[in-house]
Amino acid sequence: MTQTQNGAVSGWTLHRLGGFQPGVVLHVPHASRAIPGDVRTAILLDDAALDAELAAMTDRHTDRLALSGALLAEVPTALFVNRWSRLVVDPERFADDALEQMASIGMGAVYRSTSQLAPLREPDTDAQRRLVGRFFDPYADAFADLVDQMLDAVGHAIIIDVHSYPSRPLPYEREPNAARPEICLGTDLVHTTPELLDAATKAFAGFDVGHNTPFAGTYVALRHYQRDPRAWSIMVEARRDTYLDEDTGTLHDGFDRLVGALAGLVRSSHELCHRGGAVDHRPPEVPAGLRRTYVQTVVSVDGDNGRLSAHAAVEQLGEPLYIITAANPFGTMLSEDDNRARHESLGDVLIASGCRPYPAVGSSPDGNWSEESWAVTGIGSATARRIGRAFEQNAVFELSGYTQRVLGCFGDWAVERQID
Ligand SMILES: [Zn+2]
């Protein structure tokens, strides 16, 4: 869980990849199946029925899709991911039932009906209001704050609203006979500009693409909705069978193709918000002396049964073992709190990339300096470097056998030494 500054557990995760003024945010509202215990109690379904409802309504793996797309794009990108299921509150609906057309079938911001149109909650206006106050409003405010920061820094904000939908219609759908293309681009008259729609059309050129079918519209928080035309937004909904097996939820080969197309849209969106004033940054050169200092780092890893030396970690966890930190971007010292937030964000990114990260520490030989890190296997050096770049690192470590190698994240330099 991410702790907010006032100590409460927040309902979203914000990742900033690539640093330096992102103008693009990927919004992932429906990927989670998690429901807080007290919210679960008020849901009328038994565990099996809730499981089936979550399977139908969750945009499974769209968090991984968005993260992978952002990593591959290699431009500054923010990711805003809902930690809770849409069955808690749906951030994409209007909280005011009078404005929300889906409220008439019990599917406003707080669902009272399931996707099968069976009862999900007792009608209780007070309880509904409490859920909106506890989950919906803070989420919308945090998202709008992020967009405001982007507008201040960049002058534009481009929201890419990432969803998926089932290949067969669910009973709650308003238009069950609507076309169900591989990719549905949802647009808004004010917030989807022709340039953005054009960029999305080009990015998904290899797919069968429809517009606003079977679902329409795209997300903009109420603070900007129809008020600030500098907040651009487009919804990308992938039909679920294009990237996973809908019965088991397992990803298939189509996932990578989708990641590639989404990365293309992220890149062209980045260009759209920075046209006229490029902010491309050059990472600092890493002098030979500093490379030699890096390679002297002493790595230790917290395995399942206690702390391991670098070589013991390789033996126990496998090789190549990558050690990646998010701390102190390009050597700029940050506060402990900032580094901890970056560390947690990197851990989430690694999990969402399909890894199991183990806590690790990199220390100077004299022990005067250390950085929290993560140890992972199951990725290649290209991915490890890419993740290092996303977290503004000069280098990552690669351990195999008795060799500790430092790999430059920018360029292709490497330095190695033997460890015991
Ligand atoms: Zn969705």
Tell me what the structure shows.
The protein is an alpha+beta fold. The chain has 2 domains: 263 residues, 3-Layer(aba) Sandwich (Aminopeptidase), CATH 3.40.630; 131 residues, no CATH class. The strands form 2 sheets. The protein has an 8-stranded antiparallel sheet with strand order 9-8-11-12-10-13-14-15, sandwiched between helices. A 7-stranded mixed sheet has the order 1-3-2-4-7-5-6. Strand 11 and strand 12 form a beta hairpin. The longest helix is centred in the first third of the chain and has 30 residues. Bound molecules: zinc ion. The site of zinc ion has 3 residues, from loops. InterPro entries: DUF3293 (IPR021710), N-FG_amidohydro (IPR007709).
Number of helical runs?
A: 10
Number of domains: 2
Please report the total strand number as a whole number.
15
- Rounded to the nearest angstrom, the radius of gyration is 22 Å
Class of secondary structure makeup: alpha+beta
Distinct small molecules bound, one entry per kind = zinc ion
- The CATH homologous superfamily of the largest domain is called Zn-dependent exopeptidases
Largest sheet, in brief, is:
8 strands, antiparallel
The ordered H/E elements are: EEHHHEHEEHEEHHEEHEHEEHEEE
Sum up the structure in keywords.
N-FG_amidohydro; 420 residues; disordered N terminus; DUF3293; 2 domains; 15 strands; Aminopeptidase; eight-stranded antiparallel β-sheet; seven-stranded mixed β-sheet; alpha+beta; binds zinc ion
